[in-house]
Amino acid sequence: AQRVTQPEKLLSVFKGAPVELKCNYSYSGSPELFWYVQYSRQRLQLLLRHISRESIKGFTADLNKGETSFHLKKPFAQEEDSAMYYCALSHRSRGSTLGRLYFGRGTQLTVWP
Amino acid sequence: KAGVTQTPRYLIKTRGQQVTLSCSPISGHRSVSWYQQTPGQGLQFLFEYFSETQRNKGNFPGRFSGRQFSNSRSEMNVSTLELGDSALYLCASSDSGTGETQYFGPGTRLLVL
Protein backbone atom coordinates (compact mmCIF):
# COMPACT_ATOMS: atom_id res chain seq x y z
CA ALA A 1 0.00 0.00 0.00
CA GLN A 2 1.11 3.54 -0.67
CA ARG A 3 2.26 5.46 2.35
CA VAL A 4 4.04 8.74 2.95
CA THR A 5 5.68 9.38 6.29
CA GLN A 6 6.93 12.68 7.61
CA PRO A 7 8.45 11.82 10.97
CA GLU A 8 8.67 15.37 12.30
CA LYS A 9 5.46 17.18 13.10
CA LEU A 10 7.33 20.32 14.16
CA LEU A 11 10.74 21.62 13.18
CA SER A 12 12.40 24.81 14.38
CA VAL A 13 15.61 26.34 13.13
CA PHE A 14 17.27 29.75 13.30
CA LYS A 15 17.58 32.01 10.30
CA GLY A 16 20.62 31.11 8.24
CA ALA A 17 20.79 27.55 9.52
CA PRO A 18 20.41 24.56 7.22
CA VAL A 19 17.09 22.80 7.25
CA GLU A 20 16.05 19.30 6.23
CA LEU A 21 12.47 18.08 6.22
CA LYS A 22 12.27 14.33 6.05
CA CYS A 23 9.95 12.29 3.89
CA ASN A 24 9.88 8.53 3.47
CA TYR A 25 7.51 6.60 1.29
CA SER A 26 6.43 3.09 0.57
CA TYR A 27 5.27 2.26 -2.92
CA SER A 28 5.68 -0.73 -5.14
CA GLY A 29 5.76 1.03 -8.49
CA SER A 30 7.43 4.10 -9.90
CA PRO A 31 6.16 7.08 -7.92
CA GLU A 32 6.00 10.73 -8.66
CA LEU A 33 7.05 12.69 -5.56
CA PHE A 34 6.09 16.23 -4.66
CA TRP A 35 6.60 18.76 -1.95
CA TYR A 36 3.66 21.09 -1.31
CA VAL A 37 3.77 24.10 0.98
CA GLN A 38 1.05 25.98 2.79
CA TYR A 39 1.92 29.42 4.09
CA SER A 40 -0.26 30.99 6.74
CA ARG A 41 -3.70 31.85 5.34
CA GLN A 42 -2.72 30.77 1.84
CA ARG A 43 -3.71 27.82 -0.29
CA LEU A 44 -1.72 24.67 -0.68
CA GLN A 45 0.78 25.13 -3.48
CA LEU A 46 3.42 23.08 -5.20
CA LEU A 47 6.96 23.75 -4.07
CA LEU A 48 8.76 21.23 -6.24
CA ARG A 49 8.47 17.83 -7.86
CA HIS A 50 11.23 15.32 -8.24
CA ILE A 51 10.88 14.84 -11.98
CA SER A 52 11.69 18.48 -12.73
CA ARG A 53 14.83 18.46 -10.56
CA GLU A 54 14.46 22.20 -9.98
CA SER A 55 15.53 24.33 -7.06
CA ILE A 56 12.65 26.49 -5.88
CA LYS A 57 13.21 29.26 -3.32
CA GLY A 58 16.53 27.60 -2.54
CA PHE A 59 14.92 24.25 -1.71
CA THR A 60 16.01 21.01 -3.31
CA ALA A 61 14.89 17.44 -2.90
CA ASP A 62 16.49 14.27 -4.20
CA LEU A 63 14.61 11.07 -4.71
CA ASN A 64 16.53 8.19 -3.14
CA LYS A 65 14.88 5.02 -4.36
CA GLY A 66 17.17 2.82 -2.29
CA GLU A 67 16.15 4.49 0.94
CA THR A 68 12.67 5.38 -0.40
CA SER A 69 13.17 8.93 0.75
CA PHE A 70 12.54 12.37 -0.69
CA HIS A 71 13.94 14.77 1.87
CA LEU A 72 13.59 18.51 1.37
CA LYS A 73 16.67 20.60 2.03
CA LYS A 74 17.71 24.22 2.13
CA PRO A 75 21.21 25.35 3.09
CA PHE A 76 20.21 28.68 4.67
CA ALA A 77 16.69 28.99 6.06
CA GLN A 78 14.83 32.30 5.92
CA GLU A 79 12.03 33.57 8.14
CA GLU A 80 9.65 33.55 5.17
CA ASP A 81 10.18 29.79 4.87
CA SER A 82 8.04 29.31 7.97
CA ALA A 83 5.09 27.23 6.77
CA MET A 84 3.54 23.78 6.72
CA TYR A 85 5.26 21.41 4.33
CA TYR A 86 3.63 18.32 2.90
CA CYS A 87 5.31 15.52 1.07
CA ALA A 88 3.06 13.78 -1.47
CA LEU A 89 3.17 10.81 -3.78
CA SER A 90 1.32 10.16 -6.99
CA HIS A 91 1.00 7.15 -9.21
CA ARG A 92 2.39 7.97 -12.61
CA SER A 93 1.13 5.25 -14.92
CA ARG A 94 -2.40 4.16 -15.64
CA GLY A 95 -4.21 2.44 -12.85
CA SER A 96 -6.76 2.76 -10.09
CA THR A 97 -4.80 5.43 -8.25
CA LEU A 98 -4.70 7.80 -11.19
CA GLY A 99 -5.01 11.46 -10.25
CA ARG A 100 -4.67 10.77 -6.57
CA LEU A 101 -2.14 12.28 -4.19
CA TYR A 102 -1.11 10.50 -1.02
CA PHE A 103 -0.02 13.06 1.53
CA GLY A 104 2.15 12.83 4.57
CA ARG A 105 0.89 14.42 7.79
CA GLY A 106 3.01 17.49 7.24
CA THR A 107 5.86 19.24 9.04
CA GLN A 108 5.38 22.70 10.50
CA LEU A 109 8.62 24.58 9.95
CA THR A 110 9.37 27.63 12.05
CA VAL A 111 12.39 29.76 11.26
CA TRP A 112 13.36 32.02 14.13
CA PRO A 113 15.11 35.39 13.55
CA LYS B 1 -4.97 31.91 -15.94
CA ALA B 2 -7.32 32.21 -13.02
CA GLY B 3 -6.69 29.73 -10.23
CA VAL B 4 -8.98 27.08 -8.84
CA THR B 5 -12.00 28.62 -7.16
CA GLN B 6 -14.27 27.08 -4.58
CA THR B 7 -17.63 28.21 -3.29
CA PRO B 8 -18.75 28.82 -0.69
CA ARG B 9 -15.67 29.54 1.39
CA TYR B 10 -17.40 28.96 4.72
CA LEU B 11 -20.43 26.96 5.64
CA ILE B 12 -22.24 26.11 8.84
CA LYS B 13 -24.70 23.24 8.88
CA THR B 14 -26.41 21.09 11.48
CA ARG B 15 -26.30 17.34 11.85
CA GLY B 16 -28.52 15.51 9.42
CA GLN B 17 -28.50 18.21 6.79
CA GLN B 18 -26.86 17.89 3.42
CA VAL B 19 -24.40 20.20 1.73
CA THR B 20 -23.11 20.84 -1.79
CA LEU B 21 -19.70 22.33 -2.45
CA SER B 22 -18.57 23.67 -5.79
CA CYS B 23 -15.22 23.78 -7.53
CA SER B 24 -14.19 25.53 -10.73
CA PRO B 25 -10.89 24.22 -12.08
CA ILE B 26 -8.24 26.11 -13.96
CA SER B 27 -9.33 26.67 -17.54
CA GLY B 28 -8.35 23.68 -19.67
CA HIS B 29 -7.90 21.29 -16.77
CA ARG B 30 -10.01 18.17 -17.05
CA SER B 31 -9.16 16.40 -13.79
CA VAL B 32 -10.67 17.51 -10.52
CA SER B 33 -9.82 15.87 -7.20
CA TRP B 34 -11.35 16.44 -3.81
CA TYR B 35 -9.61 16.14 -0.44
CA GLN B 36 -10.72 16.43 3.14
CA GLN B 37 -8.33 18.11 5.55
CA THR B 38 -8.72 17.69 9.31
CA PRO B 39 -6.28 18.14 12.20
CA GLY B 40 -6.72 14.52 13.18
CA GLN B 41 -6.47 12.77 9.82
CA GLY B 42 -4.56 15.26 7.70
CA LEU B 43 -5.24 15.39 3.97
CA GLN B 44 -7.35 12.50 2.74
CA PHE B 45 -8.40 11.81 -0.81
CA LEU B 46 -12.13 11.72 -1.47
CA PHE B 47 -12.47 11.19 -5.23
CA GLU B 48 -11.29 12.28 -8.62
CA TYR B 49 -13.24 13.13 -11.73
CA PHE B 50 -11.98 13.24 -15.27
CA SER B 51 -14.14 14.10 -18.27
CA GLU B 52 -17.33 13.78 -16.21
CA THR B 53 -16.43 10.30 -14.94
CA GLN B 54 -15.37 9.32 -11.48
CA ARG B 55 -12.00 7.75 -12.02
CA ASN B 56 -10.91 7.09 -8.49
CA LYS B 57 -12.46 7.02 -5.05
CA GLY B 58 -11.03 7.12 -1.55
CA ASN B 59 -12.26 5.34 1.57
CA PHE B 60 -15.19 7.49 2.48
CA PRO B 61 -18.78 6.39 3.09
CA GLY B 62 -21.41 6.65 0.42
CA ARG B 63 -22.73 9.84 2.01
CA PHE B 64 -19.93 11.56 0.13
CA SER B 65 -20.60 11.87 -3.56
CA GLY B 66 -19.58 14.07 -6.41
CA ARG B 67 -20.03 14.86 -10.04
CA GLN B 68 -18.37 16.73 -12.83
CA PHE B 69 -20.00 18.76 -15.55
CA SER B 70 -19.08 19.09 -19.19
CA ASN B 71 -17.22 22.34 -18.48
CA SER B 72 -15.09 20.43 -15.91
CA ARG B 73 -16.66 22.21 -12.96
CA SER B 74 -17.26 19.81 -10.11
CA GLU B 75 -19.51 19.53 -7.13
CA MET B 76 -19.34 17.34 -4.09
CA ASN B 77 -22.27 16.51 -1.90
CA VAL B 78 -22.38 15.24 1.64
CA SER B 79 -25.70 13.92 2.85
CA THR B 80 -26.82 13.31 6.42
CA LEU B 81 -24.03 15.41 7.88
CA GLU B 82 -22.22 14.22 11.00
CA LEU B 83 -20.15 16.23 13.45
CA GLY B 84 -17.04 14.47 12.17
CA ASP B 85 -17.59 15.90 8.70
CA SER B 86 -16.40 19.27 9.95
CA ALA B 87 -13.29 19.91 7.90
CA LEU B 88 -11.64 21.93 5.20
CA TYR B 89 -12.59 20.51 1.81
CA LEU B 90 -10.03 21.12 -0.87
CA CYS B 91 -10.45 20.84 -4.57
CA ALA B 92 -7.51 20.43 -6.92
CA SER B 93 -7.31 20.45 -10.68
CA SER B 94 -4.77 19.20 -13.15
CA ASP B 95 -4.57 18.73 -16.87
CA SER B 96 -4.90 14.98 -16.99
CA GLY B 97 -4.29 13.79 -13.46
CA THR B 98 -1.67 11.30 -14.60
CA GLY B 99 1.05 12.27 -12.16
CA GLU B 100 0.73 15.89 -13.13
CA THR B 101 0.96 18.76 -10.68
CA GLN B 102 -2.32 19.43 -8.93
CA TYR B 103 -3.35 23.01 -8.28
CA PHE B 104 -5.38 23.58 -5.18
CA GLY B 105 -8.23 25.89 -4.42
CA PRO B 106 -8.57 27.85 -1.17
CA GLY B 107 -10.97 25.30 0.26
CA THR B 108 -14.41 25.35 1.78
CA ARG B 109 -14.46 25.25 5.54
CA LEU B 110 -17.47 23.27 6.74
CA LEU B 111 -18.62 23.34 10.33
CA VAL B 112 -21.27 20.86 11.40
CA LEU B 113 -23.10 21.68 14.63
Quick structural gist:
The complex is a heterodimer of chains A (113) and B (113). Chain A is mainly beta. Helix content of chain A is 0%, strand content 44%.
Integer average pLDDT of chain B: 93
Written as H for each helix and E for each strand, in order along the chain, the element string of chain A is EEEEEEEEEEE
What helical percentage do the residues of chain B reach? Answer: under 10%
Shape of chain B from CA axes? globular
Oligomer: heterodimer
* Largest protein-protein interface: A-B, 25 and 27 residues
Tell me, what's the shape of chain A? Answer: globular
The overall strand count of chain A is 11
Q: Helical segment tally of chain B?
A: 0
- Percentage of residues in strands of chain A: 35-45%
Helix content of chain A: under 10%
Instruction: List segments of chain A where confidence is low: pLDDT < 50 over at least 5 consecutive residues.
Output: none
Rg calculated over all Cα atoms of chain B: 13 Å
Question: What would you note in describing this structure?
Answer:
- The complex is a heterodimer of chains A (113) and B (113).
- In chain A, 0% of the residues lie in helices and 44% in strands.
- In chain A, the strands form three sheets. In chain A, strands 2, 5, 6, 9, 10 and 11 form a six-stranded mixed sheet that branches.
- In chain A, β5 and β6 form a beta hairpin.
- The mean pLDDT of chain A is 89.
- Chain A is mostly beta strands and 113 residues long.
- Chain A is globular and about 40 Å long.
- Chain B is an all-beta fold and 113 residues long.
- Chain B has no helices and eleven strands.
- Chain B has strands at 5-7, 10-13, 19-24, 31-38, 42-50, 53-57, 64-68, 74-78, 87-94, 103-104, 108-112.
- Chain B is globular and about 35 Å long.
- The N and C termini of chain B lie far apart (37 Å).
- The mean pLDDT of chain B is 93.
- The A-B interface holds A 32, 34, 36, 43-46, 49, 86, 90-94, 96-106 and B 3, 31, 33, 35, 42-45, 48, 50, 55-56, 58, 90, 92, 94, 96-99, 101-107.
